[in-house]
Specification:
By secondary structure, the protein is of the alpha/beta class. It is built from 11 helices and 13 strands. The protein has helices spanning about 10-25, 45-50, 65-75, 90-95, 95-115, 150-170, 195-205, 225-240, 255-265, 295-300, 310-330, and strands spanning about 5, 25-30, 55-60, 80-85, 125-130, 175-180, 185, 210-215, 220, 225, 245, 255, 275. Helix 5 packs parallel to helix 6 (about 150-170) and helix 7 (about 195-205) crosses helix 11.
Length: about 350
């Protein structure tokens, strides 16, 4: 049985990758940070489903604690390591640049060193980001495109990306970078624009909320489904050689397009509910990100299975179920609306 070691296991990608690996009969080991905000809600169903098999094991640890990480890697001796941990919200990285950068910089080196020091052939995956490109023009971006990071988050990710390549070339390690473009799901955090939209659409439909305030409606992104993208992560580590790979759909849509499609799911017009506020715009906006996944298509045999419309529909339908339950609790006076744009 193969062993996989995951950082960032409680996040969106951590959930979908854990699920994929467990279904492939891996023994999955994941790290979670010990903090007052510790939350395993995304993976609770996996913990419950696999508790008897013993194939899903969680540990309190932190990428900034090199002693803890080294100890775990030496103890577990994983076959594959997936570094997913990060403060992944770009806007938050401007507000707290030091913390946002640390996990990607010091954290990535800690993990790479721990893997290097292990006496077996570990395969390492680094979660890089399309934000590293900066979106300076409208051209499709591939593995050879220029990196121009425009946020502390992107700068930290670029450091980790380059260090992964350096370790690969310097120590003959199997280290691959997955340059993933925006990938979403019902598991996406509610502060991210796609989930903010799908959540608001559901609440507006159930008359819990009366409007949705967004920032730059013209920002364009290449959006895919996280469940498809973790398949690409796994495929990278099954490939004969370590390399860097762009993972994207090759199609891009604006924030306005996403909002319009989301409101269509409940037969509402987006213009009737959406307003804009510059406070939701970034200090240094990335206007256009479109990926060219040709290399992954050709060499990995990976292709996205979920269309843009299917992704939006999936997210809205999931949030409709949440909003329906929320409505019942509010009407029973068991819950007070807390959303910024609630009707109350």
């Amino acid at each position: 049985m193969k062993k996989a070691f995951l950082t960032g296991v409680t996040g969106q990608d951590g959930y979908y990758l854990s699920k994929l690996l467990l279904e492939k009969d891996y023994e999955v080991h994941g790290t979670i940070r010990r903090s007052s905000t510790f939350n395993t809600s995304r993976i609770d169903n996996l913990i419950s489903e696999y508790k008897d098999s013993g194939n899903y094991k969680l540990y309190y640890s932190d990428l900034l604690d090199s002693s803890s990480i080294n100890s775990l890697i030496q103890k577990i001796k994983p076959d594959e390591v997936y570094n997913l941990a990060a403060q992944s919200h770009v806007a938050v990285s401007f507000k707290n640049p030091h913390f946002s950068s640390l996990t990607s910089t010091s954290g990535s080196v800690t993990l790479l060193d721990a893997v290097k020091n292990l006496d077996n052939d570990v395969k390492y995956y680094q979660a890089s980001s399309s934000e590293m490109f900066g979106g300076v023009d409208n051209k499709p971006l591939n593995e050879e495109s220029l990196f121009i990071p425009k946020s502390p988050y992107a700068a930290g990710k670029l450091f980790a990306h380059n260090m992964t390549r350096i370790y690969r070339e310097s120590y003959d390690m199997f280290c691959s970078n997955g340059i993933l473009f925006n990938h979403e799901s019902p598991m996406r955090g509610e502060t991210f624009v796609t989930r903010k939209i799908s959540r608001a659409v559901a609440r507006i439909y159930y008359e819990i909320q009366n409007k949705l305030t967004l920032g730059n409606l013209e920002a364009v992104r290449d959006w895919g489904f996280a469940g498809d993208y973790v398949q690409a992560m796994w495929m990278m580590l099954q490939h004969n050689n370590a390399d860097d790979w762009v993972i994207a759909t090759g199609k891009a849509y604006s924030v306005k397009d996403f909002a319009e499609e989301a409101f269509k799911v409940v037969n509402l017009k987006w213009e009737d509910y959406v307003t804009t506020d510059k406070k939701y715009e970034r200090p240094n906006e990335v206007n256009h990100l479109l990926g060219d996944p040709s290399k992954a298509n050709k060499e990995l045999g990976w292709n996205p299975k979920t269309s843009f419309k299917e992704l939006v529909k999936m997210m809205v339908e999931s949030d409709l179920k949440l909003a329906e339950r929320e409505k019942v609790l509010i009407e029973s006076n068991l819950l007070k609306p807390t959303w910024e744009n609630s009707t109350n």
